[in-house]
Specification:
Elements lengths: L1 H6 L4 H10 L4 H13 L5 H16 L3 H10 L4 H8 L4 H16 L7 H14 L4 H13 L8
Length: 150
C-alpha cells in the first residue's frame, strides 16, 4: 500500500480497489484506509486540488474534463465541486486560446472550415464547451492573414 503512495498521490477509492484486488477483506481495507486518512497519507481533497492544478497546467483540461476524471478516480462529488470552484472562467478561456494557437501552427494552408472543425474537436476533447470553443477558434482564425477579408 505504501508503495502505491510512493508512486504518487492516490484517492481513497483507488487504494480501496487495489486492496480489494489483492484479496483484502473489506472491513480490514476500511480500517487501514481510515488510519491512513487519520495520519494524512490519504486525503482526497488535497488530491483533487493537486490534480486540478497539474492537469490544467500540463494538459490544458477544462472544468468538465477535470470533473469527469476526478469522478472516475472515485472522488466524492462535493470534493470535486470544491476543487473546481477555484477555476477562473477567464483563465480557462486563456488556456483554450493557448491550446488553439499551439495547434494552429500545424494547420497552415488548410481551409478555414477544416481548421475550425479540427480545432473545435480538439478543444471538445479537452473538455471545453462549444460556446468557448467556437469563440476562441473564430478569434484565432480571424487574425490569420490567410483568412483576412479582401
Amino acid at each position: 500500500m505504501l508503495r502505491q503512495l510512493a508512486m504518487g498521490p492516490r484517492t481513497r477509492k483507488q487504494l480501496e480497489d487495489k486492496l480489494r484486488d489483492r484479496g483484502a477483506a473489506p472491513d480490514v481495507a476500511a480500517r487501514v484506509l481510515d488510519r491512513m486518512s487519520e495520519v494524512g497519507l490519504v486525503d482526497d481533497e488535497a488530491y483533487a486540488e493537486m490534480f486540478v492544478r497539474s492537469q490544467q497546467e500540463t494538459k490544458g483540461l477544462a472544468t468538465s474534463a477535470l470533473r469527469h476524471e476526478l469522478r472516475r478516480k472515485g472522488v466524492a462529488e462535493e470534493t470535486v465541486d470544491a476543487a473546481l470552484e477555484e477555476i477562473d472562467p477567464e483563465h480557462e478561456k486563456e488556456q483554450a486560446r493557448a491550446l488553439v494557437a499551439r495547434r494552429l501552427r500545424t494547420m497552415r494552408g488548410l481551409d478555414r472550415e477544416v481548421q475550425t472543425r479540427r480545432l473545435a474537436a480538439y478543444l471538445a476533447r479537452k473538455g471545453y464547451g462549444p460556446g468557448v470553443s467556437y469563440q476562441v477558434v473564430r478569434e484565432a482564425l480571424d487574425v490569420l492573414p490567410e483568412h483576412g477579408r479582401d
